[in-house]
Known about the structure:
By secondary structure, the chain is an alpha+beta fold. The chain contains 20 helices and 39 strands. The strands form ten sheets. Strands 26-30-31-35-34-33-32 form a seven-stranded mixed sheet, with helices on both faces. A five-stranded antiparallel sheet has the order 5-4-3-6-9, with no helix packed on it. A five-stranded mixed sheet has the order 11-14-17-18-19. Helix 5 runs antiparallel to helix 8 and helix 12 runs antiparallel to helix 16. It starts with a strand and ends with a strand.
Amino acid sequence: xxxxxxxxxxxxxxxxxxxxxxxxxxxxxxxxxxxxxxxxxxxxxxxxxxxxxxxxxxxxxxxxxxxxxxxxxxxxxxxxxxxxxxxxxxxxxxxxxxxxxxxxxxxxxxxxxxxxxxxxxxxxxxxxxxxxxxxxxxxxxxxxxxxxxxxxxxxxxxxxxxxxxxxxxxxxxxxxxxxxxxxxxxxxxxxxxxxxxxxxxxxxxxxxxxxxxxxxxxxxxxxxxxxxxxxxxxxxxxxxxxxxxxxxxxxxxxxxxxxxxxxxxxxxxxxxxxxxxxxxxxxxxxxxxxxxxxxxxxxxxxxxxxxxxxxxxxxxxxxxxxxxxxxxxxxxxxxxxxxxxxxxxxxxxxxxxxxxxxxxxxxxxxxxxxxxxxxxxxxxxxxxxxxxxxxxxxxxxxxxxxxxxxxxxxxxxxxxxxxxxxxxxxxxxxxxxxxxxxxxxxxxxxxxxxxxxxxxxxxxxxxxxxxxxxxxxxxxxxxxxxxxxxxxxxxxxxxxxxxxxxxxxxxxxxxxxxxxxxxxxxxxxxxxxxxxxxxxxxxxxxxxxxxxxxxxxxxxxxxxxxxxxxxxxxxxxxxxxxxxxxxxxxxxxxxxxxxxxxxxxxxxxxxxxxxxxxxxxxxxxxxxxxxxxxxxxxxxxxxxxxxxxxxxxxxxxxxxxxxxxxxxxxxxxxxxxxxxxxxxxxxxxxxxxxxxxxxxxxxxxxxxxxxxxxxxxxxxxxxxxxxxxxxxxxxxxxxxxxxxxxxxxxxxxxxxxxxxxxxxxxxxxxxxxxxxxxxxxxxxxxxxxxxxxxxxxxxxxxxxxxxxxxxxxxxxxxxxxxxxxx
Length: 822
């Protein structure tokens, strides 16, 4: 919602700066998203001018050289390209130094060899309209040199507000003014609909029938004759432009202006184009079609509502009018419709048709039926004033009329108990009256009659909220809620998740939080064969399916950082992924049983419920470590950098992990592995480098490494209560071996054979060097192993270790074809 400050000040002008007003509105629940300047600046350089001469340009057929009197005896030479410029006109002039709406500062220039000392302006060049076909011609009674700001609304600031769905009354300027009045105490002008020139009763020659009253609670209509269609005055155009609306003609501009002022949409029919003189509100028929004001033919269904006449549908109710009955240059009779519609139905219709409008955005929130005649009153005065129209007697009003208003009792003690501080009763009454509640004392508190436009206030807690936000949420003390026996103990799964997150943060990674929704294109870019769970009513095609991997979200975040000049990132996310049952991997026993009362997996399939998992994903790009004076060009991230992250995670959860060759299509075939957990080798995820062609889909250059594992699988085998192991004081025996094996033998297989042959006395075994070259021959690799032997009850001697060493060598020879190097 864009609210021009100049328009707002017509109804409530608090004596505070815009910054203070912005903060006060935000703190009372009407969030100010931004503050925009609208129009021109350096106003002292915009003046009224008199065109003295206007001759042809010697070197350009479409340009004219003008001499313009700009007051105080000054005459400016200005080159103008407008076809309607002529001597004797009173015009708007921008002199050198003026700043245009796009921020351009005007300077003296030469156009085709002729000096030009400013501009003769069209209305779009002042941001008070859209017309650029000719210059803006002013009243001849204005004196040359008069500041243009005294004649035209050249500049205003615009508040961009975020209005919550429960407050459609704030989708009108007067509703916002009411909030400003309550928040600041500044005087509030009377409502602009106080004086209504209309009268009740039937309208001759017109009728309205409602066949779907549950979807149209109220429908009002007034008839105007002798209407003159022309442009709106500059002040109205300027307000529409500042509020984000495009001026069209006076009648259409009036409907938009009144909607922006009151929050209630209106629609103007050309009364002579309403076939039969009767409008009928009914449900559409399946397959029925209507061409809307944007010249698009829309296909309707029977859950939508239309307004029709004897020739068929003429409007989509609450969304957009039809072009068959629109107001045009020859219109002389206007039927002004203001109606209230069922909000959910309007929202569904708008979404179904892919047709959003300012009207639908308001109607779908469920407006009060009391707003219809308020909008009619304002529109009637403007139609008479700006279009010279004659308002015919009568107002067609079909529906329940003014809605009944309820009374809510609020107790003084209840306010203090809910807010943690007392608010004096007189202050409560002052706040509620400022918000247009009718308040009276009632025993232990106040009785407040709810205004018709506050449909969100139905109970005592709602009034307490109104009192709290206006009195000042910053005044509320910080208190803890009553516990009532509750305990703040984390479940084991929660503790393990936090332990995993802390480990990743400790490893230097930054957490990101992404949408669980993604696009089907993400799965194609990942080459994933796992089918996505598609949403029935997606917000957009970019969020049409549930993600099956965290990797896609991490790649999105890495690509965004790369585009912002940060190619090296360390990111992780702990989030949900959603798999169809057919794509689900085997699960650890006992943890994934269907809910009680279902018939197992078939029941889940019948309800189309996905298999929701929590995955831990990490992504590394750029250098493996920061550059230093000793290492100015560190190596890029690789498989082993990602494996280090996996190992940090495994250590934090105290779980043993193993790896095997990976087959995932988004991974580098030679620099990635599948992660296995537990004694039975349960698949838990993958670790390694992303395939270069997949990384290129996101515009990422250089190696991209990562890891993604199923947190539930890890926590199933995690050691949540570690057992105490006595630390022996006896020294260890350390032994190094260089073993030559085939190049296709995994190092993990070598370590497994060593640990199995080493027995209980082998405390540790690890690879500390790898060699390939002439000394070991082609197709062979030398692995240098560091072995640590230790006994808990004695110091080991050579004769204890020698048999174990021989057994290890024998096992490697027999099982893997290995031999000692040298």
